[in-house]
Structures are given as structure tokens and as C-alpha cells.
Give the backbone structure.
Amino acid sequence: MMDRSWEIIGAPFDFGTSHKGSHKAPEAIRAVGLTRRVEHFNSLGIDVVDGGDVEPQASRGPERIPTGLNEMMAYAPLLMARLENSLRTEAVPVVLGGDHSISIPSVSAVIHSNPSASVGLIWVDAHPDLETPGEDSTNDLNAMSAAHLLGLEVGELRTLSGLAPTVRPELLIYIGLRDVVSQERQIIHDMSITTYTMSDIERLGIVRVCGEAFAVMSERTDAFVLSCDIDAIDPMVAPGVDYPEPGGLTFREAMVIMEFGSQAQKLALFELVEANPTKDCNESTSKVAVRLLHRMICGPVV
């Protein structure tokens, strides 16, 4: 287990999707066990604090495309400021979403805090979130978050201070993809983005996939973000999500990813997003989230 500090920060923002309910996830994850585990972590000498939530505000202007753009324009500076403050203390922020559009301010906070650094991104998800506005798009911001971070145009977010930095395509790695639309597939090919689909994980094994992905972060970046959408996990294990796709990660495979992340010296921020308690069954997805967070913070069993 590495000697590092952690700060849990809730981001109860779900304006970036037409599905509502993921804003309740930070509270639900705390309630089913995370709060108790924070106390346990500290009793073990692990420095973990719960910094509370950064609350969003409803839009006051006319609706614009993509969905959630107005709200994110207001929310991004708030979340970025909170995360940058945490990063200045040399803690690793653990961000609880919320929908996946919160990655826009969270990854941008790491880049903005390290303006001369090479920042990487491991994106664990069933979907690449590379859509851009148009007739063939969902026009939801949470389906465009990675596109924004790569520098593609998804709205007016770049007019906000701190949201202009981008992630270089060679420093973005996908793990767990299994639902990719044609526009996203073309972007992945055109930008030569390293991608491990569920078929690749089945063929290669999760240990090899993680070994290769985290080695890139170790060798080619100064800092990196691990962004995990809980719908990467099979819905038989984590049913409380907005976009369930059969054939996802097993619970054990997801825990292996957490173990690799916990041991990565250059991990700057971890986020867990897209759990939706209103669609959960017996709080099972929130409980899975707690176990993933436990493994991330505590590291491997031995």
C-alpha cells in the first residue's frame, strides 16, 4: 500500500444526461458503507477524508445542445476549483459522480494544476463517450465528455478558463468498451486511440490489459486520471446504471483494475461515475461501488 492521502468529493451532477438519478449516487454510496469505511481506513493509519459534495445549480437560461451544457458551464468552475484545492494539498481526489460529463472539469483540473505536465487518462467504460452534436447523436453531454477532452467541439465549454487543455490521443486508453457507434469508431481509428474492448479482455486477460495500460501511464505521463463508469461492469453485478450493456467486466476484473490503480505512483485523480440508485436492485450497485473504492484506497489484499 502506497503512502498517500485521499479526499472523497461528491459531484452530484446529472444534468448531462436525459436519464435522471445519478445525482443521488454520492449519498447512496456513503449510506451503504463508505462513511463507515472512511472511519476504518483512518483507524488503519490510511489518510482519508470526506470533503463533502460540490452541489450544482439548475440552468437559468434557454436550453442548448448538448443536454446539460448550460448547467456544466456553471458547474465546471466550481468543481475544478474544489479539485484544484485538493490537488494542492497533494491528496488524490476520489470523485463520486454523477454522470460522466463531470470528467470534463475533473480531468481539466488535473491538467490545469500541472500546466507543464504530460497528463494521461485511462477510461474504463462500456462506451467511449466520443459523440459530438448532430442528427446521429444522443446530444447528451455525458456521451461527449471524452470528445471534449480530446479537443473536439461539443459546445462552448472551451470559453471557460481552464477547460481549454486537452488530452493527447496517445495518452488516452480505453478499457471495457462494448457499445460503440460508428462516429466514435471512426474517431478511435483516426486518432489511433489505444482501446481494449471486452473481446480483447476475454482474449488477453485483465491482468495483461492492465499491465500494458498502466505501463503507458507510468512511462509516458507525469500524472494520470483513472475514470471509471460503473456500467463497464456487467449489469448482472451492477444493475443500477442508465445504459446497461450485457457482457461487461466481472466483479473480479473490476477489482483488478482498482488494484493496479492503487499501486500507480502517478495516479492524480480517481473518479467513479454513472451509478443510478433509482435504477438499482437492493442497493447492489452502490455496494459494489463501496467495494471498488475500498480496493482503490487500501490496495491489494496482500
Remarks:
- The first strand starts at residue 5 and ends at 11.
- The CA atoms of residues 100 and 142 lie 5 Å apart.
- The beta strands are 5-11, 47-53, 91-97, 119-124, 172-177, 194-197, 223-229, 267-273.
